[in-house]
Amino acid sequence: MKYLLPTVFILLILALSSVLWAKVYITIDSPGRSRFPIAIPDLKNTGIIPDVRGYSKDLMKAVEKDLDLCGIFQIIDPKAFLEKEGAMERDKVNFQDWSAIGAEGLVKGGFALKEKEFALDLRIFDVIQGFQISVMSYRGALNNLREMGHRVANEIVRAFTGEKGFFGTRLAFISSVTGDKEIYIMDIDGENMRRVTFDRSIALSPVWSPDGTKLLYTSYKMKGPHLFVHDLNTGKEHVISQRPGLNIGAAWSPDGKRIACTLSYEGSSEIYILDENGGNPKQLTRTYGINVSPSWSPDGSRIAFVSDRGGSPQIYIMDADGKGVQRVTFSGKYNVSPAWSPRGDRIAYSGMRGEYFNIYSIALDGSDMIQLTEGDWNDEYPSWSPEGRYLAFSSTRDGHPELYLMSSNGIYVRRLTNTHSGVLCPAWSPK
User: Fold this and answer.
1) Number of C-alpha atoms within 13 angstroms, CB side, residue 259?
2) pLDDT beyond 90 at 163
3) Sign of CA dihedral 209, 341, 67, 137
4) 3-class state of residue 81 by DSSP
5) Between vectors from CA 187 to CA 379 and to CA 358, what angle results, nearest 5°?
6) How many distinct helices (H) and strands (E) make up the chain?
7) Cβ contact 262:308 at 8 Å
């Protein structure tokens, strides 16, 4: 099966953005933060072709869905608006009318239809100060308005937070909806879910290549746990490692030239480095017991992993050549699934204290451990968003394991899937 990448779809979209005011209005991970009230009136048709199909409304619905998903905006009900479409120019906007309904941010825009193309111009305003923060212009195909909507939402997030949004990214994950464990991918907002593997076996631990074009995963379809690469452009796949014993838990280095994984063909389960084609194995760990789940630092210089060399599974860090091993976690009887933050300063992981797994994050030196989830259920397999402000994870809080999203401080949580069949091992795509 062939999958096209988002970059193919967005070739016709050209965006011009100019941030005119560098103020940060929202600190995303502030513990006491309330949602930022923003008004988004209907787009004004500035062209000559009427929008009988409702393209403009569909576009802005996608934008509003994205903004609601990230949990930092309160979108004001249009019924409260004192001004509807109105002018886009700053000197013609009645900021008092928008302030009167509680808006602090305002997004106004106009559009024009041109055969199969949609032209969009937007302005983002600070209502309280009466400033124009950002100007945006987009051109795109009518059949690709979702991608344009993601770009608009990302720019709105950037205008008010100074941070890039995660809209337009995807999640790879394992689902048992067919009875077998297969890999699926979907957009981060839960749309466009589609099956990637058809192995009729057990697939585990998908990870994205740094350029987002491939998935590296473990499969039992050849009578043992072997490592495979699936090309999302062509649908083709090939085996990377089928050495005797375990071939599991692989992860690409940030430059895509190395693969860290666990192999056991020489005896115990150890971390190895392979080249991008699966050759030239270099053993990094040498201990009795398990050494699994490697996760690269953003600069590729270090690797976090799980080892039970101290008596129970705990998180460790080592240099990419296997030297300088340091233990990170000391609290909890079972700590697994390390995920190194894209910001480089923290590691998220699943930890068991009592009967259930919860998600934690911790500084690299083992200090400042933060418990992000809590409950009588299992929260597992954390995966960071590309900008490092959110985590995707699997949780059984509603029965079957499903995918959830939460802010990096654990305050905001949103359910992403509703399969009723079991969803595990989320992997967030690159930017």
Assistant:
1) 27
2) no
3) negative
4) coil
5) 10
6) 4, 31
7) no
**What's the token pair of residue 295?**
């996760």
Q: Are strands 105-114 and 36-39 parallel, antiparallel or unpaired?
A: parallel
298 secondary structure, DSSP code: T
CA dihedral over 412, 416, 420, 423, signed as positive or negative = negative
Architecture per CATH, domain 170-428, reads as: 6 Propeller (2.120)
Decide if 257 contacts 275 (C-beta within 8 A).
Answer: yes
Q: In sequence order, what DSSP letters do the residues of 408-421 get, joined into one string?
A: TTS--EEE----SS
- List the one residue out of 251, 344, 246, 237 whose CA is nearest residue 294: 251
Q: To the nearest whole percent, how much of the chain has pLDDT over 90?
A: 81
> What kind of architecture, by CATH, is found in domain 6-161?
3-Layer(aba) Sandwich (3.40)
Task: Give the type of residue at 141.
Answer: A
Question: Tokens 């595990």 map to which residue?
Answer: 424
Mean pLDDT in residue range 383-391: 96
Task: Note the pTM of the prediction, 2 decimals.
Answer: 0.90
Question: Using CA atoms, how far apart are residues 195 and 154, in angstroms rounded to an integer?
Answer: 27
Domain with CATH 3.40.50.10070 in the chain: 6-161
**C-alpha–C-alpha distance, residues 378 and 425, integer Å:** 13
- Helix then strand then coil, in percent of the chain rounded to 5, is 10, 40, 50
Residue keyed to tokens 């994984």: 261
Q: Is the pLDDT of residue 415 over 50?
A: yes
Residues of the chain with CATH 2.120.10.30: 170-428
